[in-house]
Amino acid sequence: MKRKESPSNSLKAYEGQPLSGSLESFDHITKELFDGTEDLSIRRFHVFGQHKAAMYSFSHMVQQSSVNEDIIKPLMHIPHHLQGRSFAPDELPDVILYEALYHGDVAREQKVDNVIKAILAGSTVILIEGVGEAIVISTRSIEKRGIEQPATEQVIRGPREGFIETLNTNLALIRYRLQSTDLRIKMREIGRRTKSKVAICYMDGIADPEILKELDRRMEPIDIDGVLDSGYLEQFIEDNKWSPFPQVQYTERPDKIVANLMEGRIAILVDGSPLALVVPTVFNQFYQTVEDYTERFMLMSAIRMARLVALMFSLVFPSLYVAIISFNPELIPTEFAVAVAGGRAGVPFPAVVEVLIMEVSMEVLREATIRLPQQVGGALSIVGVLVVGQAAVSAGFASPITVVIIALTTIGSFATPAYNAALALRLLRFPLIIMAGMFGLYGIMIGLIIIANHLLALKSFGVPYLSPLVPGNFQGMKDLLIRGPLGSLTKRPVFLNPQDSVKFRRKENDDAAGKQQDNPSPS
Amino acid sequence: MENTDSRQITLIQASAILISTIIGVGVLPLPLFAVRAADSAAPLVTIFAIGVAFLGIALLTWLGMRFPNQSIFQYGNDIIGKWLGTIGSIVVIVFFAVLTSLTAREFGEVVVTSVLKSTPVEVTVIVMLTLAAISARRSITTFAYFHTFYFPLLLVPCVLIAILSLGNAEVINLQPILLTSPNNAFMGTFTIAALFQGSFIMTVVIPAMRKPKKAMKASLFGILVSGGLYLIIVVASVSVFGAEEIKKLLWPTLELAKGASLPANVLERLDAAFLAVWVTAVFTTLLSSYFLTSVALKQVLHLKEHQVFTFILLPIVFFMAMLPQNVTHLYVIIEDIGRVGLYITMAYPGLLLLIAMLRKKRGERNA
Amino acid sequence: MHRAGISKQIRLLLAALLLMPLLTGCWDRLEIDERAVVLGVSIDEVTSEEAAERESEVSHVKGSLPPPKQGMVKVGVQIALPGRIPLGPGEGGGSNDTMQTVWVITVVGHSMDDAFMNLQQQVSSELFFGHLRIIVVSEAIAKKGMENINDYFRRNPEVRRMAWLMVSKGKALGLMTAAPKLERIPTLYLMSTLDNSIKMGKFPKDYIGVYWSNSSKKGQEGFLPYVAIKDEQNVEIQGLAYFRGEHMVGVTKPFEVAGYLGLRGVNPAGYRAVIMLDENDPNSTVMTNVTHRRSVIKLRLKDGVPHFDIYIELEANLEEKMSEEFEINNPDIIARIERVQSDASVKFYQNIIKKTQSKGSDIFGFGEHVRAKKPKYWNQYVKTKEAWQEKYKEVTFNIDVIVKIRRIGMKAI
């Protein structure tokens, strides 16, 4: 089967080939590689008015004013101190680099393929006739949006910055929060065509090297043509792709990343994605929020419990309803039972079908609300909830209690901070409803046991998913259902196997900076 | 990244395995067994039974600590020779396969009698067995995780029901606390002690324990908690119903749940809810005996993995579960098998221990 | 990792395959609105003519089965009508006609189950006993024996132990058709009547489960509330119907329930007593309200017969006096009231014990004390329920009552 040669393959032909020093031949190469590419600008000029040279760049990716002022101007117009001197061609790169060019990030390059790659990445390349070396100047300037509040992870109390698409900005956001020599950032390039830059950040001396190695082992074989978002990467490094539960956490909050780094986790950032990944991930991360740590511990413990209740609600509420209505009506108070029977009297379907229909329409409604333009969305959700619910009841299509149950469930699923975890529970609700429709409470329990067993067997990078609940760890449990006072959370999570396990040492006069404090030496 | 270190089970996990294995469907008819044996002295008989059960598990644990890297199916061969050891192991395996099927059937009967009245008992049995079979495929570390996760779920409903029924309790029902006729009590003690047979799982847990030296502590702890729970249930039901009423009830514990209601009438009766939660208790019990059976088969046949056996066992166990003709027949079998089982789960390890001591055999102690 | 993925697929497939046949299931699914929710059951005697006329041939062919010794039964059930009871606290329960919210049907049968099967034949939805709250047995049936009734309801897993079993004066069916005005559903009214009287200290906790436990015990007999319909469709608790074994043998007066409660030391207390300070002067009457009871029962053997020393302590408040002729303003007069009341109480308690002794029905559970505290004696001389029923007649009692009046209300004299 004959395949059309991909650009990276055609570039392969030039791999390792040295620059010839002839502008003519390089023009030939660019013509062949970038045939018909209009945005490649080739600017011919004479260095110091003597040597023929050419400048290559993608005009829309570079910062034009910098190119004009700092590159072309000093090269065309011979600077003051060089006036009257003449140079041999092979002296030129040195002179330009050391004496003429007003630009910080400059490199030399001898190989054709690297030069081409640099042009693709947005650098400006200068070639001089008769010189076997190119001067590569990073002039890349991509339009980016400003740093805004993270849309999906709003907080009331806490930093307001969120990641943006540009990797460098994101790394800067992390670095300025974590001014430590221990912060290591390793770069990788993934994506055969997109050549996306991937940054792996971790704290040296805290993160478990075993997990780092494992991460490397999982990143190595990834051979995908394009990584457009960190979500692509997530699916290649997770442990169990058949699980509905996310095994990698994502966040767009730099403060969250820093907190995780200091607990001994590893962050993965992808150029072009405002969402950073965090591994290893355990289940309790999905119902924790930033405020849990910034607000007073008693209030936030109570709210965290409420969130857990909401989580359980969104999973089992409809199935419990089905089980009680269709199998065990003796459980609810007599008066209520009789009234419920009255409410259901006109509904033609069994409770399980009724609930399934309502749940599915709720999902449709929810999806529609997300996809619609913002201006219309609000109107639709009100119309959907009010009109459809009301109409369904008065049409005898659903009983009023079913509507209440569905509404509670839906609201409950919104209370989970992590969208992907909420999604998993939303999905698992359906098999549970069906189980409840078949076996009542017994069926629900069987379903829950299956889910619990799955969670118990699941691991994220070797860390049991339900840590620190199972396997139990007393220190960790202080930050599980409730959030203990920061002063008492002295240890990093043990299940992450941190090199330096002490997060916070109690000094004579209690230092309350606990969370953000950095302990350089292992105890 | 799989942790190559297979000795992962901690003291608490080992106790949790014991507790959730022991607490199972046996709790439902337990007060009936106890009262049949000794009327109002039922709690006393239960305490005797806990003592007997602890003796059994202590023998096994002692043996296990002598051979900290092996289970009874392995050191049995070392102690009494290959042939006798294999025969012993096979008897144990058959016994636990039977125990698995009886547990599944017993719970199936409970569910079909009280909640799912028109569902065929085969369905409830096969569902439970399949669940156990699928879960028994995991490694022993995950197996320990399962138990650690579920065991608090078992304690809560029992204690809750005991507390809720306190209002109707009468101390006089528990008197006289001493035995009046010792004959029945003797048999009854063994019937109840037989409910602790799941603790035999300890033999495969010890070789996976991080510190096998703590195994005795785990056994003690496990028996104390599960025995304590048994005692609570017996005391609660006898004090609420009185001995004579219990004799008329097939599953007094379930009846206790029926009589209890949550404050403010949130749930007016707890029997169906209790039974639902009890699914986990039965699941953990089944899981343990299933796991034990398949791991034992693996070790007797010197294979690498026990997963193969989980599905092979399924039809056999299911078939055995369907053998009892009716619920009274089932209970006759359960009591008989239970008492026979005491020879297997107590006398056999005891014998092995004795011979091991006489022949001065020990396992290597590098653990 | 790869291997794990594959075995996972197989596992999912297997699980799916195993679930396939189950999808045809839903054996037990029965919507709440498809159930005939039985709220109350009444059990009456039936005359042989009526029985012959109404007997259905559902569980057996007519004439093939002789009627049981106790005779056939007429069972009335109260079934809730879904749709008639509005959801939520709506326009209150002012309905005058019972028939609006519930449906009362009667059938006859040889036994309970037979009767219910006959009923099922007439009702489209499946009968559901999960919400059965009230079982009313007519006095006549209770006297004939409750074996069959107890057996049926104990065996049925749907029936709750917190339901009320009661004996009615006259026809039991009357309680099913009664239409009290306070509740939407008549049986719930009946139930709350009894539940509230427990809260007010007027009746012991005597759910069907308690009755079963009591009548199972060797040294105790069961008793049931004895109720009657009044003119305004309301229900009055008229005392305790006490049993000997499975047979009802007598009824106490309503006030004698207080005797039972006092002897058992049940709290809270709620009965009032009329105290005449001067036997010849009706105007010297005061009323006290007992608020707290305590009883200690001591057992000893006297001449080979159990003897009980019962100490009862009652705390009371003064509620009312009939005239201004005397003033209640000093401890002396309070002491006098206390003395008179305790003397009266001793007689009162003795009477009620005698009454039950004459029938051999130990509803107080004195026998349980003997069994619990003197097991040797019990095993030697009593051992069985029947033996205790006889022995109970010989038992002697010594009752001591201490009354303490604590408060006299807002009035100073």
TrEMBL record, chain A:
* Disordered: annotated span: 503-523
Give the record's GO biological process terms.
spore germination
Query: Where is it found, in Gene Ontology cellular component terms?
Result: membrane
**Transmembrane spans:** 305-324, 336-357, 378-397, 403-425, 432-456
Tell me which UniProt keywords the record has, alphabetically: Membrane, Transmembrane, Transmembrane helix
Q: Which Pfam families match?
A: GerA
> What family does this chain come from, according to its entry?
Belongs to the GerABKA family.
Q: Can you say what this protein is called?
A: Spore germination protein
Species of provenance: Paenibacillus nanensis
Automatic annotation (TrEMBL), chain B:
Q: Which one Pfam family would you cite for this protein?
A: Spore_permease
Primary location group: membrane
| Stored InterPro entries | Spore_GerAB
Gene Ontology BP, a term = spore germination
Q: Which GO terms describe its cellular component?
A: membrane
Q: Transmembrane residues, as ranges?
A: 12-35, 41-63, 83-104, 110-131, 143-166, 186-208, 220-243, 272-297, 309-334, 340-358
Q: Is Transmembrane a UniProt keyword of this protein?
A: yes
Annotated localization: Membrane
Query: Does the keyword Ribosomal protein feature in the UniProt annotation?
Result: no
Could you tell me the keywords of this UniProt record? Germination, Membrane, Transmembrane, Transmembrane helix, Transport
Give the highest taxon in the source lineage.
Bacteria
In what way does this protein cross or attach to the membrane? Answer: Multi-pass membrane protein
Give the similarity note.
Belongs to the amino acid-polyamine-organocation (APC) superfamily. Spore germination protein (SGP) (TC 2.A.3.9) family.
- What name is this protein filed under? Spore gernimation protein
- Name the source organism: Paenibacillus nanensis
Automatic annotation (TrEMBL), chain C:
This protein is called what? Ger(X)C family spore germination protein
Q: Which GO terms describe its biological process?
A: spore germination
Stored InterPro entries = GerAC_N, Spore_GerAC-like, Spore_GerAC-like_C, Spore_GerAC_C_sf
Source species taxonomy: Bacteria, Bacillati, Bacillota, Bacilli, Bacillales
Q: Does this UniProt record's set of keywords contain NADP?
A: no
Record domain Spore germination protein N-terminal: where: 28-228
Species of the source: Paenibacillus nanensis
Major subcellular site: membrane
Highest taxon of the lineage: Bacteria
Q: Which PROSITE patterns match?
A: PROKAR_LIPOPROTEIN
